[in-house]
Design brief:
By secondary structure, this protein is an alpha/beta fold. It contains 17 helices and 20 strands. Helix content is 37%, strand content 21%. Bound molecules: flavin-adenine dinucleotide. The site of flavin-adenine dinucleotide has 34 residues, from α1 and α17.
Length: 455
Amino acid sequence: MNTVIVGAGLAGLAAAHELNKAREKFLLFEKTDSVGGKLKTIQKEINSQNYSLDLGFQVIPSAYPSLQEIISPDSFTKLNPCYFDSGAILLRDGKSYSIGDPFQDASSLFDTLWNTLLNPLLSLEDKIRTLILRQELGKYSLQDILGGKPWQEQSALAFLQERRFSDLFLNNFAKPFFGGVFGDNSLGIRASNFAFTLKAFSQGKVFIPAAGIQRLPELIAESLPKESIKLQTTATSIKAEENGKKLKVFLGSDKYVLVDAVILAVEPETLIEILGLTDLTETIKELIEDLRSENSFRVKYHNLYFTSSISLNIGKKIFLNCNPGALINNGVQISEIQKSRHNREEGQEHLISVTVLNSKVQSKNLPQTCIDELETLFPQAKGQIKFLESFEIKEKNSLFQQNSANYERIGKLREAIMAKLPPNVFLAGEFMSENCSQEMSIQSGLQAARKILGK
Ligand SMILES: Cc1cc2nc3c(=O)[nH]c(=O)nc-3n(C[C@H](O)[C@H](O)[C@H](O)COP(=O)(O)OP(=O)(O)OC[C@H]3O[C@@H](n4cnc5c(N)ncnc54)[C@H](O)[C@@H]3O)c2cc1C
């Protein structure tokens, strides 16, 4: 079979990887000039120092099962993984509290037991409940949890409240921590997404490649035949030919390729355009309009970078800002983690990455407002923090602000599109799942390719 895959994000690359493994012919079309989609790193040189800046704070949990399917242990080292320390630094009222992760390492409980007694931000009962939850999650595999079992309909907040976690735990740990992961700090995400992430984070280690997050898709692409990847190639439409036995994939108005199957691994807006779905119901049209415009579907997500000549002294842990009404949700001294990349020598600047969710501050004022807040959180760095770069991550949109209202709407949209698919056209990408993650994108790509392979 000849296949065209549209979109070289993780989903499209995973599909290509699977077809390549089966020695099937394929072409992978990507409209931009690089592979990776939402996994994007840019290089910036300032005062003769090179920085690799990821567009959005994004980490890779080594326990992701599908990731392990496409990155062999040998290739894994080529990612040059830089690991985070588990746990977090909680910051509140001018004080800082380091917590370990009893999910990751039960012995850290004894470490943190003492800390907990001194830590007014978490209760001892929460620690014990965390251990009980660890046991509960231990009964299920990551796949079981992703499959929706056993907490399909519940929100993460309801799930934690049902297990009697205190408001201290919810406000000082769960909301800022999972807010940073899901772009939504209300814990409105599905309990199954929350449980999946919690388990994936604690089963393995969390890392970023030394060269930045985009190294992951680049490594997958390196295992594919070079000539099969066509960058700066935009698929515009598909037309069924020969009674649906063949498909024409158009690249603009008159150029096309004729193939047996197509995998579309693109955002829903693009899917609709490529498939020419004009006869959709009014409700679905409204949903699409919603997707296209700046409205409740959208997550406001900013990722800002700063340099500082003084270390924040948080090691390789993420910090969570637990102050009520705070602007910065979470952050990390990224140069401490990607040490080999940033190769900081004495006197060189530290690199800090912070995430801001749903900011009401005007974009132009955001950097200085963040500096003011960072200086309050880390008084030792006062006067030393300089703004480097700010990214407004619109693509976080595709995470559809993971709350229950949007799940239902997106589900309807997915069903409407699936019902109109021509034969031999398959869908992949985060849009196919309620869990928008690297894992689900890879899994959906593998599944689409396996359908073509008849597996
Ligand atoms: C800020 C942020 C932080 C995140 N953090 C994490 C995290 O820590 N851990 C985690 O697991 N997940 C995280 N995610 C989610 C994860 O990154 C995404 O779910 C995943 O990368 C999506 O991959 P995809 O292949 O489905 O889609 P995409 O990455 O969107 O890929 C789609 C590709 O299709 C291309 N394309 C579009 N239209 C066309 C066309 N007409 N022709 C050709 N090509 C086309 C696009 O250019 C793009 O390259 C995060 C996402 C964001 C935005």
